[in-house]
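quick one before i forget lol
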Amino acid sequence: MFIICPIYWRGGFVAKNDLTTYIFADYLSDLCARSPLASEYRLFWTIIANPKAGGFNIRARWKKHYNALRASAKKSSADRPDNESGPSKISLVEGDRRGLVLTRKKGHACLVAQALLKEAASFRESHPDMKPLYLIVTAGGDGTSLEVQSALYQAPAELRSCFAVLRLPMGTGNDGADARDLGDALRLINEPSEITYQRTVKLTASTPGKGPWLAFNILSFGLDAFVTHMTNRMKGKLPGDFYKLWVDIAALLYDRLYKVGPLDVRAVDFSGNEVIKISEELLLLAIGESGHRTYGSNKRILPDDRNVCAVKQMPMLRKVALKSAFSSGAHIEKPESILFNAARLEISGIYPILAQMDGESVLLDTADFPVTVELSEPVIPVLRVKKPS
């Protein structure tokens, strides 16, 4: 018989497996209570954490995160004004006194965000002269952030203006986080910050009732979506960081499992003017919310101001030779790469192709073409350090 021995931590007993998330939430809730963020508003925070995320369970990463939390606590400001700020009501019901909600299954983070939207609407109705700020802190991988932002995307603009999202790098890839280093991300609540709005990338298929799908970092088609798909299937079944291994294997297997046929791509800007037309066999096509974005655990697919990268099909040995270039961003100088800025892509193809949105994959069949990929108006409220005036 196995006996689970709880551990005493700051006023209560917790299971050993949950200890890192409770320590994390203790520090983070203290930082929120002292944050200078929107000090004129009542701040209600919710920490949505995936307890299975690598940032909590990989010892070396957790040690680094713990040190960042302690360092941030030492730099923390004085207490916020006495305006009854604290954890959100839904977090106290779903989680604990710190405002910590642990996700239990896929889709849970989205449900919590939807409940927070209802809570904010109720608060606005009962306090018409007082505007709250609901801070949602996501502490997991890109999937956790994707769910929260998808819920906010669907909300009315007036209600969305009562929110801000802080995306902490507690997963394995963290390409959609607000910083790759936890200490840098915590600056956004530890120092004077402001709310800005970020665009969304939306994929729409021709098939009625299928999609649409959203991405808040990068949406892509082809080889990298295949890697994402296989990584998600194998995650939890094999030990270690399997993603890096699958990058190498996928380069060898992709062409044999999925036909790389011609794609017709028409790109336009925000004014509707045509930017470029492409008719090529494409190995991959990536569209970012902006330039200067990474995916696949810091692969610099969009290393400059341009937000679209198309890569032509190439022989296997050429793929192997260019592998490191895609990690460093040097691929943009290679003849196989086509980079440009666009607000909308119209894409047609004759073979099924995989697409991925911030680490979630979907198979598009031939009947789904043509598909469109477009940038929304700035809609997702995120934080950035306030620039000196």
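fyi The longest strand covers residues 274-288.
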